[in-house]
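--- STAGE predict ---
source: upstream dedup step, 1 unique chain passed
mode: sequence only
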Amino acid sequence: MTVLAVVLIVLAGLALIGLLAIEVPRRAAARRQRRDKLATQVRGHRQEAAAHVSRADELRPQAAAHREEAARHLDEAQQLEAQAERSKRFAARHESEADTRASELEKL
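--- STAGE serialize ---
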């Protein structure tokens, strides 16, 4: 009985060693494959980030130029609005003056 127990323990140990001999390299290969995949993804994301930074650098001066042009347009629009208000006031004054003169004309 003791010999049988020893043989069974040795066989179980050998089976465990055999399983480990198969499983350890398989897991190592899976880790390597995962690492490679992640490294590829990292490179891809870094390239995309660099491309976006480059595009942002290109767009910044254009945005600044448009902002300056918009400010100039706003100033011009405000000046034109002020001129329009003055013209409306002048028109109202001349219309009133015309009414006054028309009234005088009717009396003659």
